[in-house]
Amino acid sequence: MPIELWTARMERPLSEQEREAILPLLPSARRERLLRMREVEKQREPLCAYLILCLALRQKCGWKSLPEVALSQMGKPYFPGHPNIHFNISHSSGAVLVGISDQELGVDIERIRPVGQRMMVRLARVSTEEAFFQSWVRREARAKRSGSGVGTIMRSESPLQPGEYYYEIDTFPGYAAGVATRSRERPGKIHRYSLDDVL
To answer: What would the DSSP string read from start to end of the chain?
Structure first.
């Protein structure tokens, strides 16, 4: 099964009714953690990431609800009852990205924003915010695919290993996004939505 990607842009806040309708879609541990957040507006992206995951699974697998989600030792989510379906989610201010495949994958999306020159040079040896976030997204997607934990992205980036592939994804203006995989096959269809398309 080729990798398929679903991405959504959130251009407005969630209403209280929308928030309450989406909350039951989340795994209980994630829902409880989200409800402890003091700033309700910061719940929008994580909530919408699971909403898009549910939409993707309905379209790709015909599932009406999210199956049980477990976490690996390094915190990578997976479906213990469906070992042949792999997924990964990412969210950044104003956007989410979800990937589904029959093999391990990692996705990341980041809004391009101001970064200090010293940090750009120290962490990525680049001089523009766009190049910095392209590097950051590549590192994070690779770490998420391998399950090594996002703490590894603070180290200097190693070259792609044999059998490791990375693809930049064109999502929305002002964002960097990508997917890491062991598949030579480029990701298939990218499904793009706005918040109002899915609510």
So the answer is: ---EEEEEE--SPPPHHHHHHHGGGS-HHHHHHHHT-S-GGGGHHHHHHHHHHHHHHHHHH--SS----EE-TT--EE-TT-TT-EEEEEEETTEEEEEEESS-EEEEEEE-----HHHHHHHHS-SSHHHHHHHHHHHHHHHHHHTS-GGGGGSPPPPPPTT-EEEE---STTEEEEEEES-SSPP--EEEEEHHHH-
